[in-house]
Amino acid sequence: MVASEIGWLSEQPAPFRELVLDRCELRKMPVGQRLYSLGDPPGGIYGMVEGFADVLLASGPFPPQLVYIARAGWWVGEAAAVTASERRVEVRARTNVEILHLPARELQVIETLDTRTWRYFARLTVSHMDNALMLASTLVRGDVRSKIINTLIRLAGPIRTIDAETFVPCTQHELGEIAGLSRNSVGPCLKRLERDGLVSRRVYGQIGYNPVRLARSLAT
């Protein structure tokens, strides 16, 4: 299963992976369905198996904004589940998705079977912090090219270190929103990246790229 091959769970010890997967429920969600919304009560933990999901964040008085597009191998929900606090983001299916759900009650069971459970979930929280820091770093960069490249690398998520072609189902406008750029500035830059062979837009609403090649281009 992809959940045990890429992403956070794949990086944990095999016995713990088995404990989690044995207690997960596989769910299917259609486009537009919410996994949960901002302010919802705590619940279980979720792992993407197939498809893509929007992640929206609202900070302070500002309205919700698209900050991430999650893909297979991405897990979420541990902060609310572990601290019994409200959900901090909204997660909504961008495409039809398959997702694993680990009910909150099963967390307690797993803890009794593996005393290092919370350390493993802390690693998941750290990965979300790394994502947030990458977003913050991208937003303060001055040039459009760096912002777009860093955003595409971040959107590769758990496969961003794999030297292979991938894609994100994202329009030019949405990429600008995530990168903190205007639509007018995104278009010309994407055309230049296309000309350089670093991105492709053969399918409307999709951006294809190799995250490792993009990362290398920043050093040149």
TrEMBL record:
Boundaries of every Cyclic nucleotide-binding domain copy:
20-110
Q: Give the GO terms filed under biological process for this record.
A: regulation of DNA-templated transcription
Pfam families referenced in this protein's UniProt entry, alphabetically: cNMP_binding, HTH_Crp_2
Q: Which CDD domains match?
A: CAP_ED (cd00038)
Write down the InterPro entries for this protein, in alphabetical order.
Answer: cNMP-bd_dom, cNMP-bd_dom_sf, HTH_CRP, RmlC-like_jellyroll, WH-like_DNA-bd_sf, WH_DNA-bd_sf
Q: Which Gene3D superfamilies match?
A: Jelly Rolls (2.60.120.10), Winged helix-like DNA-binding domain superfamily/Winged helix DNA-binding domain (1.10.10.10)
**Transcription regulation listed as a keyword:** yes
Keywords, alphabetical: DNA-binding, Transcription, Transcription regulation
User: PROSITE patterns from the xrefs?
Assistant: CNMP_BINDING_3
GO molecular function: any one?
A: DNA binding
For this entry, the protein name equals Crp/Fnr family transcriptional regulator
